[in-house]
Sequence to fold (441 residues):
Amino acid sequence: MGVARQSALVEHELLERVYDARERSDEVFRLVRPDAIYERPIPERHRIVFYIGHLEAFDWNLLSERVMGERSIHPEFDRLFAFGIDPVGGGLPADQPSDWPQLGEVQAYVRQVRRVLDRKLNLILQPGLRPHPELNTLLNVAIEHRLMHVETLAYMLHQLAHEKKHGQGSAPYLVTAPVDSGMAEIPDGISTLGLSRASGEFGWDNEFEDFQVNVPAFEIDQFMVSNAQWLEFINAGGYEERDFWSAGDWEWKSSHGISHPVFWKRLGEQWRYRTMFEEILLPLDWPVYVSHAEASAYARWAGKSLPTEAEWHRAAYGTEDGAQRSYPWGEDPPSGRLGNADFANWDPMPVNALPSGQSAFGVGGMLGNGWEWTSTPFAPFRGFEPFSFYRGYSSDFFDGKHFVMKGGSPRTASCMLRPSFRNWFQSHYQYVYAGFRCVRR
Fold:
């Protein structure tokens, strides 16, 4: 098979992935009852209606002129739906539902953008034609951007009142063996972080360039910190003891009245847990989802630390003989037997539910079931070059306020479970499906 034919197959495969990603986002929006489309479930974010327009506006702004030579079909909406909100500083948004277009207008914009993009992409990808040299990269960006929003929309809709969603009716996964709260020993060795440009593989700008880090020996929790362990922290007065919190984190916690994870609810003497579609008794063996500030306080209380990005990477992908695996369990692609990810479930599983997914060092649940906070501020690797077509994607967040997360959640697409992928959020944001595990050096 010639090189040109191989390229065409890859490009058509990407087009199929564009369609699949659209179906994922459409499924999420179908969860919302019509009278809730203009709700703002997370105060720091846009209203739900914004995201319906945003995903198509992003694709249009990325591809139309750059690849297709198409002029705007709705310049006002292209601008209105172009950018989301990062909840760091600047106060809360104050727009009203009446400030936004009618839902029918937004949906018409979505349909029109899809029609034009699909027609042009199918023409560009005809055999024998030479497409734009960056088309594969641009389509991967469009796909993964949409799938990232499919996940972050789950965070948002999680906070929407249950009666304003169409329920799924699936029972949460609650049964497993008792959790061993021990630690695994990780010998000293090398972590290779990042992705090589020479590999030809797609990655976001912050994934390049690859480099090696010598990681001294350390111990790491065999499993993510569970709700049961977090309950011990609460009962020990962890939210009231200032010594466990940095000055900035203590100020945030105190000024916002933070006294428990955002997914928890106190009802008399009982703790309840808010899942996507119902409220249940607190599942003690699920991973706790908390902010970076809360995770850091717990680690200090426990006499441990959060892992660095390189330590987490070594525990997940390293081996005794120095080789590095593609996934913690080996080379097999992700599946429900190995990790709780790729939209298979709305909720977490017990931290020890999938023993087949453990790493070479016996560390369990490192891909899926919840992102894992590290102590590493989000910053560029050596050789970082911003995307020419999306210069602020990463660099706008190299501010010391955001921290690297690794792993993945139940709502993370399988394509973003690659070792080089880096997620990040600021330390005072509780809504992410993110937990953690601790290290001892």
Remarks:
- The chain is about 30% helix and 10% strand.
- The chain has a mean pLDDT of 92.
